[in-house]
């Protein structure tokens, strides 16, 4: 006798990680306004959680709780809602789908850690699972690129090279696990404002390339080499808009970090340390200095958006 089909899930829980950019090289703006990037993404163990539940047809509802909740839009500009609507429109067929999404944020908003993209990626995967839309990972990533350039990486996770405006992702040859201390800024930084300052500071940037020393360091798995190779072309722009970040970076290095970099467009500062014990020590001493709103430990690489329940 054929076994009965499993019941459709009532709810799906997806967890998606924050990213830091181990390298972020930025080229001259393209005619469409986007900057070409050569970046190395690294997913770290700081997660937003998205729950998706069935709702009435054509109803798309959202609630958000957690870190920075008052800065998260609840309207159709929210990346999780946009993801659900996009998936329903492109792959929903004739079905009139609906979903109730609930996001529990731990990734700070406008922190340069791609929290919104993590939510978009998580919502795509959660809705595809809930609605039983079976898509190959690369099809889901392709759809994710329509939402934002960091979304394909939020789905992929690990350590990956990003080209185009960041959306062309491919896993990097990388060894080892790394320990990080993350220092959150008092307030978020607007990504478009950081790019505008980048343009003012860099009238003629060259086409970006992923730095060879960073790729060698990742192949070797040595945190000291990796720490020395961390690089971000947006860092001077972020420091120019938020000069106090210089003190945060200097303090972390003085307290023993083997590398320090502003993540993406900032203001989160990421400090690389040798091992977990050093991560505990640095997070305690950096917190005591009072230079950051919040200090957390994380490790990477971790997997991208995954169904966890
Ligand atoms: P970027 O990916 O551009 O570097 P970021 O990591 O600095 O962004 P995000 O937390 O992704 O910052 O938020 C950027 C903006 O996206 C926010 O200011 C907010 O207006 C908008 N946004 C849309 N959806 C979300 C979401 N689900 N969570 C957080 N912000 C969101």
UniProtKB/TrEMBL annotation:
E.C. no: 2.7.1.148
Its name, as the record gives it, is 4-diphosphocytidyl-2-C-methyl-D-erythritol kinase
Give the matching Gene3D superfamilies.
3.30.230.10, GHMP kinase, C-terminal domain (3.30.70.890)
Q: Name one GO molecular function term.
A: 4-(cytidine 5'-diphospho)-2-C-methyl-D-erythritol kinase activity
- Identify the residues that the record assigns to the GHMP kinase N-terminal domain, covering every copy: 78-158
Q: Name one GO biological process term.
A: isopentenyl diphosphate biosynthetic process, methylerythritol 4-phosphate pathway
User: What metabolic or biological pathway is this protein involved in?
Assistant: Isoprenoid biosynthesis; isopentenyl diphosphate biosynthesis via DXP pathway; isopentenyl diphosphate from 1-deoxy-D-xylulose 5-phosphate: step 3/6
Which residues make up the binding site for ATP? 108-118
Instruction: Identify which top EC class this enzyme belongs to.
Output: transferase
Protein origin, superkingdom: Bacteria
Q: Which residues form the GHMP kinase C-terminal domain?
A: 216-290
User: Per the record, what are the reactions this protein catalyses?
Assistant: 4-CDP-2-C-methyl-D-erythritol + ATP = 4-CDP-2-C-methyl-D-erythritol 2-phosphate + ADP + H(+)
Q: Where is the active site?
A: 19, 150
UniProt keyword annotation of Nucleotide-binding present:
yes
Q: What does this protein do?
A: Catalyzes the phosphorylation of the position 2 hydroxy group of 4-diphosphocytidyl-2C-methyl-D-erythritol.
- Keyword list, A-Z: ATP-binding, Isoprene biosynthesis, Kinase, Nucleotide-binding, Transferase
| Family listed | Belongs to the GHMP kinase family. IspE subfamily.
């Amino acid at each position: 006798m054929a076994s009965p089909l499993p019941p459709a899930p009532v709810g799906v829980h997806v967890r998606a990680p924050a990213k830091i950019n181990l390298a972020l090289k930025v080229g001259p703006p393209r005619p469409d306004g986007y900057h070409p990037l050569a970046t190395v993404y690294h997913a770290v163990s700081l997660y937003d959680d998205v729950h998706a539940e069935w709702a009435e047809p054509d109803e798309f509802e959202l609630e958000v709780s957690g870190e920075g909740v008052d800065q998260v839009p609840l309207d159709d500009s929210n990346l999780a809602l946009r993801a659900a609507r996009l998936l329903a429109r492109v792959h929903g067929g004739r079905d009139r789908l609906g979903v109730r999404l609930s996001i529990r944020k731990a990734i700070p908003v406008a922190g340069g850690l791609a929290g919104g993209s993590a939510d978009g990626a998580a919502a795509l995967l959660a809705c595809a699972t809930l609605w039983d839309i079976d898509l190959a990972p690369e099809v889901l990533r392709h759809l994710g690129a329509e939402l934002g350039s960091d979304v394909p990486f939020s789905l992929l996770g690990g350590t990956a090279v990003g080209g185009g405006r960041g959306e062309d992702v491919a896993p990097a040859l990388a060894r080892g696990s790394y320990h990080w201390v993350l220092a959150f800024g008092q307030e978020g930084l607007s990504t478009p404002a950081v790019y505008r300052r980048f343009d003012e500071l860099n009238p003629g940037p060259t086409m970006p390339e992923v730095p060879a020393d960073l790729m060698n360091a990742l192949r070797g798995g040595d945190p000291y080499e990796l720490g020395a190779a961390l690089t971000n072309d947006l860092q001077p722009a972020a420091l120019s808009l938020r000069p106090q970040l210089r003190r945060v970076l200097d303090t972390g290095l003085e307290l023993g970090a083997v590398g320090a970099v502003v993540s993406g467009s900032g203001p989160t500062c990421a400090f690389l340390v040798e091992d977990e014990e050093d991560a505990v020590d640095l997070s305690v001493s950096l917190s005591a200095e009072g230079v950051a709103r919040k200090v957390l430990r994380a490790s990477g690489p971790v997997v991208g958006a995954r169904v966890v329940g």
